[in-house]
Amino acid sequence: MVVIDDSIAPPAAFGCTSARLVTGASTASPSQDKAQLISYALAGTALSTIDTISYWAYRDAASTGGPAVDLALNVSITGTSVPGSYASLTYEPYVQSTGNAGIVVGTWQQWNATATTNGDGRWWTSKIANPEPGSQASPIPWAAFQAKYPDAKVVGYGFNVGSFNPGMTLAGDGLVFGTTTTDF
């Protein structure tokens, strides 16, 4: 479920509402709950031109999912250099240099998804097999995906709470993608 409301007050300077993403209780596979909020406003934009990506995320204390779960960011791309001509690139806070310890419950945190500090700004795609660089087991910097898929174009981008993360209440706001900022 995705709701834009004031139930989780946004970080300072971002109005009075935020995007709240909630997943239900665990269910038998493969029908796991998932929540996404995707924008197609920049569809067709060259991936190579997107050098700034950041967002604010909040994990509510009522969440019952694992300690590594926080609001992820997905970017869907297409292009002839992309395996199968389509891929989803994923940024998750727990795979950054701070790991699970970097996720602070009940606090708005800003994530710089294009950070160039060692161990940060790391992304992965399921189009690359583990443990190859760029896979979930071995995420790589944003710039590496730009180089790997030189003709890629953005299809959409936005918040995601993955299929295997039941019982989560998360919020997002202040999503910066290139020169576009979304204030929910």
Please sum up the structure shown:
The chain has one domain (2-182): Sandwich (Jelly Rolls), CATH 2.60.120. 4% of the residues lie in helices and 35% in strands. It is built from 1 helix and 12 strands, in the order E-E-E-E-E-E-E-E-E-H-E-E-E.
Explain what you see.
It is a single chain. This protein is mainly β and 184 residues long. The chain has a single domain (2-182), classed as Jelly Rolls. It has one helix and twelve strands; from the N terminus they run E-E-E-E-E-E-E-E-E-H-E-E-E. It has one helix at 142-148, and strands at 2-5, 18-22, 35-39, 53-59, 72-78, 86-91, 109-112, 122-125, 140-141, 153-161, 169-177, 180-182. Strands 1, 2, 4, 7, 11 and 12 form a six-stranded antiparallel β-sheet that branches. The chain has a six-stranded antiparallel β-sheet with strand order 3-10-5-6-8-9. A hairpin with a 2-residue loop joins strand 11 (169-177) and strand 12. It is globular and about 40 Å long. The mean pLDDT is 94.
- CATH C-level class is Mainly Beta
In the CATH hierarchy, the third-tier topology is known as Jelly Rolls
Structural class: mainly beta
Q: How many separate domains?
A: 1
User: With helices defined by DSSP (H or I, 4 residues minimum), what is the helix count?
Assistant: 1
How many beta-strand elements? 12
- The average pLDDT value, as a whole number, equals 94
Shape: globular
- Which residue ranges are poorly predicted, with pLDDT under 50 across at least 5 consecutive positions? none
- Strand portion: 35-45%
Distance between the termini: 16 Å
Query: What is the name of the CATH architecture?
Result: Sandwich
Q: Characterize the largest beta sheet: strand count, sense, and whether it forms a barrel.
A: 6 strands, antiparallel
Radius of gyration: 16 Å
